[in-house]
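Dear support,

I submitted the protein below through the web form. The confirmation email said the job was done, but the results page showed an empty box. After a refresh the structure appeared. I'm attaching both so you can tell me whether what I see now is the final result or a partial one.
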Amino acid sequence: MKRFLAQIVMPCLLMVSMASAATRVAIVTTETHPDLMAAIELAETACSGEPGMELLDRRFIESALREQTASLSGVLSASQGVAIGKLLDAQVLMILQQPDPQKPADIVVFEAETGIRLADGALPEEALSQQAAFLKTLMDQALRKKNNTDHATRTLSLLAVQNVDLPRSQDYFAQSIAYLVERNLIRSPAIALLERERLDALNAERGLHGGRLENNLLPSVCIWELEVRRGAAEQEIRLFIRATDVEGKTLGEAVVLGPAHAADLAERLQGELVRLLQLEAPPKTTDRKAEARRFQREAEIQAQHKRMGPALRAAEAALALDPANTDAMASLAEYRMAQAKAIPGTNGSMFASSALDLLFTLKAKHIKSKADENLFYYLNWYPDLIELRSRYRSYLGIADTPSGVQSADDRWLM
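What the results page shows now:
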């Protein structure tokens, strides 16, 4: 693995500076909502006179993407960003998605050649001029990271998250910790992110280019991995992080202890990463609820595209940031039940049990969830889950008898 990582990036140390050339920039969306299009047009006007930036013509972009609408559906991956960048011959790609015009648009900015994520955010619910200014600021920040003329930008790549001894139903809790860290670190003016899958792709490209890839960001890549396990105290979580450079040399290791709350653990973990790698810390998140809504929108889109793993990870992050959000709670319960049905045996029943934990909380607030009905039918498929059936009967308010779960008409007895 160390040799593999080194092969990806070491040839990039022989890079050619492109700082003097204008960067080809594309602002891309397949949405047609008038307010969003107006904000984009204002942002393009603001960017068009910027030195060092060549803004691609909107009519050219729309023509090129006319038959590529499907590639912009779902939550965009770095690989999709690279494909769209090649189609447009763009170097930096800002993509805006707003499936629901009643909710804010989500934004991601990629370096098109590598798929490195330079910036992301949600369009503020403010006046058009302020939205355009936000887009312009996000683009400026992305270009500074890409050009990296002062070599200040560090590119982080998460190698793996390992759930060591928590139940399998906690896999996405563990992943959400790292996801929260990444989502916040990208807000730093000197941190970019590289997805693990792109490391493989870049290594393949290196081979095609005779062992040489010229890029300003790849030499700064730092690899980090996370282990999540039980702590010594009850309800304590122990995180172990290891960071290495591209040659596999250890840059630092640290242990983080804390209660089983993903958002708080992520804050502590982020602090350790910033310390270990001497990173420029991002500004503190001022509105956790707004960020939670952004994760929830992502979870909904992932679930619509049947990508339950990413949906669970995003939903866990949303609830961690806003524990009182009953919509997020109901969605997470639904996604856990979907995962329970997809995984046979004990691991599946663990997801069903964790969904029931959320249903108890929702019932106390007099809120229903699709997970309730899904759990009812799940238990009829697996009648041998005696303990889970007993808990479900308690949830329904039905006396626990050997007859098991009764009919659907008995549900929601108070």
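Response: this is the final, complete result; the empty box was a page-load delay. The two ends are 56 Å apart (CA to CA).
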